[in-house]
Amino acid sequence: MDDALTLSLVIPAFNEAARLSDTVERLIEAAWNGLIDPRVTELIVVDEGHTDETDRMAEALLAPKFPHLHILQLQRDSGKGAAIRAGTNVATAPVVAFMDVDMSVDPAQIPLLLGAIESADVAIGSRSLTDSTIESANIRRVIMGRAFNVLANAVTNVGLKGTQSDFKAFRTPMARLLFHLMAVDRSAFDVEVLWLARQLGMQIADVPVHWSDSRNSTTRPTADSVSKAVNRCRIHWRMNRPRIPALIVEARSGNRPIRERVLSEASTTFRTTDPVLSLPQDRSLLLLPLCNPAQVNGTATRLSALSNKLKVNKRLVSYAELMKMKPLRWADMSPSARSDDSGSTERRHRSPREAWRHRQIDLELSSGREV
Question: Does any domain span residue 1?
Fold first, then answer.
């Protein structure tokens, strides 16, 4: 049997055929040295509407080493944020990470991200930490990067030193939710994602990295920093974020042990890449971010067919509703948690006041807008 995937690595690429052979050398070297295990790594190269042979080059260079390689082709260049969203949408491992194709951060440092994500929802590689090192002859790029980081923290109050880093990892359910809610597809998309993570109470870890400037980088220090600053200021005014397709799953009747057993059996069919919230009265809110209506309907039909004791209602959940539900009780749907006989999958307990407020939110969801 094949080993279960542990990491989905997303690499956006736009017209990279000329330099791809040089930049992916680090990735292949990390695999040869055992720092990345190709047997359990899903490599997703997102071709952002190329006008060269980026897709063919990626296939030729990476397929021999990475058996779980996917070349995802987009019709047009919609921005790096849109490309990473598309890659996250097809990711199947419990952790998804992304990095630039120029490999400014050596992929040999991926184990640092994976170590940090064990106790966090998001891990970011930061070149501003004490233990980080920077190797660059482009002083202007370094200064502009630091200036933008200061601006981003001042405007958003995320309190992180690596907001502009293109080396990040997420628990896949959290990544799907964040990229579904994300409104900025180009410059500053990653800052918005971190801001959303902070707003939703997710745990974020900083990881020191060694960063070396790529001579062939397509980044424009001044223009890109100004663009990021403008988009950063827009984020606070984007309140009409996409609603999230969701399913409220509950047992139709029975005493609490029966309800818990029915819901527990249903939860084993949930995808581990979808976020799940625990609701009062032994119910679950299965969020289906980035899913289209056909996928939502298919999931609802599959769950409803499991048992006549199971009730499944489709809903659209807004960002405002999620904010009202804070602190969010994420259910751990990882394979290790599912094999735990204790039956407890919640991330934290609530006080009586929090429980009362969540019952009010629960009533709103029950009478909310259907898909």
Answer: no
Residues 245 and 265: their CA atoms lie apart, in Å, by 22
The arithmetic mean of pLDDT across residues 76-95, rounded, is: 92
212 and 299 co-located in one domain: no
CATH code of 314's domain: 3.30.70.3400
Give the range with max mean pLDDT: 154-163, 168-177, 215-224, 235-244: 168-177
Domain end, chosen from 235, 270, 286, is at 235
Last residue of a domain, one of 235, 263, 297: 235
* pLDDT tens digits, 64-79: 999 999 999 888 778 8
Q: What is the C-alpha to C-alpha distance for residues 190 and 97, in angstroms, rounded to an integer?
A: 12
Q: Which residue segment(s) compose the domain that 194 sits in?
A: 7-235
pTM score, two decimals? 0.84
Query: Closest Cα partner for 225 from 142, 125, 105?
Result: 142
- Highest-confidence segment of 170-179, 180-189, 261-270: 170-179
CB atoms within 10 A of CB 250: 21
Structure confidence by residue, pLDDT tens digits, 135-157: 754 555 555 555 555 555 555 55
User: How is residue 61 written in tokens?
Assistant: 């260079």
DSSP per-residue letters across 46-89:
EE-S-SSSHHHHHHHHHTTT-TTEEEEEPSS---HHHHHHHHHH
